[in-house]
Design brief:
The protein has 9 helices and 7 strands. By secondary structure, the protein is α+β, with helices and mostly antiparallel strands. The strands form 3 sheets. It has a 3-stranded mixed beta sheet, covered by helices on one side. A two-stranded antiparallel sheet has the order 1-2. Strands 3-4 form a two-stranded antiparallel ribbon. A hairpin with a 5-residue loop joins strand 1 and strand 2. The longest helix is centred in the last third of the chain and has 16 residues. The radius of gyration is 24 Å and the shape is elongated. The protein starts with 5 loop residues before the first helix and ends in an 8-residue tail after the last strand.
């Protein structure tokens, strides 16, 4: 069994900027390529940080209201400094939080969650940019066909990992929701089957009826 890896899901042709790239050029690149952020690379193509739409919008958020109807913006000192920046090095959020191509979707998703970022520049062993992976890229595992999920459960979970004849377990998958019936009833083996099924890429939920005959009308 294996999860899909970042290298299979990332975008390899990455729009990027240099530290001295200007504010308006960054805004133009975001609009032209219909993207929400760009990594900032040093002269060796190593990511220093990321400039996102949110970083650019600090410029607007820091503005006083000409009509005097809004309270003065209360930004943290770091954000107030960035709101006045005119080049990528001052605008970016850094240091860059990066992933590696060989990481699994689980590793990348956990890093995104813990660091509260929406995308990860992907770097090689030398730290040079080779791609970028976003939350939407990771969510592509849930686009797997139900038939592919079922076959992985039968071949990888049951036969190869647990040594169980897959024909003894009724595996049904609909919209990523797995239903298990037949096979072993209770005990550690049934729990192990359920746990491993939940780890299959694309599985949304698992209903465990192991030990009970399948419903022929399901």
């Amino acid at each position: 069994m294996r999860h899909r890896i970042v290298g299979e899901l990332m975008t390899s042709a990455v729009v990027h900027v240099k530290p001295d790239t200007g504010f308006k050029e960054i805004a133009r690149l975001l609009a032209e390529h219909d993207i929400t952020a760009v990594p900032v690379l040093d002269h060796d193509d190593r990511p220093l940080g990321v400039v996102s739409e949110a970083d650019l919008l600090l410029n607007e958020a820091a503005q006083e209201d000409p009509a005097g109807l809004l309270l003065a913006p209360d930004l943290p000192p770091r954000d107030r400094t960035r709101s006045r920046a005119t080049t990528a090095v001052g605008l970016m959020t850094g240091p860059a939080v990066c992933a590696r191509p060989e990481w699994t979707v689980v590793e990348a998703a956990r890093l995104m969650q813990s660091e509260r970022v929406k995308r990860l520049p992907v770097v090689d062993e030398a730290g040079r940019l080779v791609g970028i992976v976003s939350r939407s890229d990771l969510l592509r595992v849930f686009l797997r066909h139900d038939r592919a999920i079922r076959e992985e459960i039968r071949a990888e979970v049951l036969r190869r990992t647990l040594g169980i004849d897959p024909d003894t377990v009724d595996v049904r998958v609909q919209d990523g929701r797995v239903t298990l019936a037949g096979g072993p009833g209770g005990g550690g083996q049934a729990a192990a089957i359920e746990r491993l099924c939940r780890s299959v890429d694309g599985v949304v939920d698992v209903t465990n009826h192991l030990g009970h005959p399948p419903n022929p009308t399901a």
